[in-house]
Automatic annotation (TrEMBL):
Protein name: PRD domain-containing protein
Highest taxon listed in the record's lineage: Bacteria
Native source species: Mediterraneibacter gnavus (Ruminococcus gnavus)
PROSITE patterns, A to Z: PRD_2 (PS51372)
Keywords for this protein: Repeat
PANTHER family from the UniProt entry: CRYPTIC BETA-GLUCOSIDE BGL OPERON ANTITERMINATOR
Length: 221
């Protein structure tokens, strides 16, 4: 950290301080001290990467906006400040990366741990579906938007332990399994991931709803 303070140009400290002060003034965020240095470090390397032509993509910026709107707004403000102060055009993917710093850098954030867990579950559900069907998501498609919303709500139910319960014999569940076999195989992969990572098993009802939403995505493929 001492070496960081010596090596980093003072402009990046000033930018980080300006961004953090914005978060404090607008959202009354209680910031951990380490964020001042970690954000300075991030901004410094971000500018260097852009100047070197290296861009780190963040495919879940839109999901970040829905799950953590305050931190997302700080990220939007941040890239504008960085651009204004350095003259370097910062890609929008960087919004999510900076927002993560503020999610992790707050004192007693009531949704810190849960939000990160929800975001991780949502992101990995999308990734498993993408790999299983070799999809390229169309973010402007209504079915995709509905799928994102469903995945987020499912993640919320998972972390709050409030999943939709199944009846003992649900004919509709079996019907969906039989008519959407490949989609259900994908849901089983998602279930395996949740069992491995969080020791959680989706109920039959949750599996059915997820299967239906995946089917709708594939109809638009």
């Amino acid at each position: 950290m001492i070496r960081l303070a010596i090596d980093t140009k003072s402009i990046y400290f000033e930018i980080a301080n300006q961004i953090i002060q914005y978060a404090i003034d607008k959202y009354e965020m209680k910031i951990l001290d380490y964020l001042y240095l970690s954000l300075t470090d991030h901004i410094s390397f971000c500018v260097k990467r852009v100047l070197d032509g290296v861009v780190i993509s963040n495919y879940y910026v839109r999901e970040m906006q829905r799950l953590n709107p305050k931190e997302f707004d700080v990220g939007c403000y941040a890239i504008q400040v960085i651009q204004d102060r350095t003259g370097v055009e910062i890609p929008k993917d960087e919004i999510g990366n900076i927002a993560f710093h503020f999610i992790n850098g707050q004192v007693d954030h009531p949704f810190n741990e849960l939000s990160l867990k929800m975001e991780k579950i949502t992101r990995n559900i999308l990734h498993i579906v993408k790999l299983h069907f070799h999809l390229v998501y169309n973010e402007n498609d209504f079915a995709y938007s509905r799928f994102i919303t469903h995945a987020q709500l499912l993640a919320q139910r998972i972390v709050s332990n409030q999943m939709v319960e199944s009846s003992e014999k649900d004919v509709l569940v079996e019907s969906v399994k039989n008519s959407c076999k490949e989609e259900f195989l994908c849901v089983e992969r998602i279930n395996m991931y949740l069992e491995k990572e969080f020791n959680i098993t989706l109920t039959d009802q949750e599996q059915m709803y997820l299967t239906i939403h995946i089917h709708r995505i594939l109809e638009k493929k």
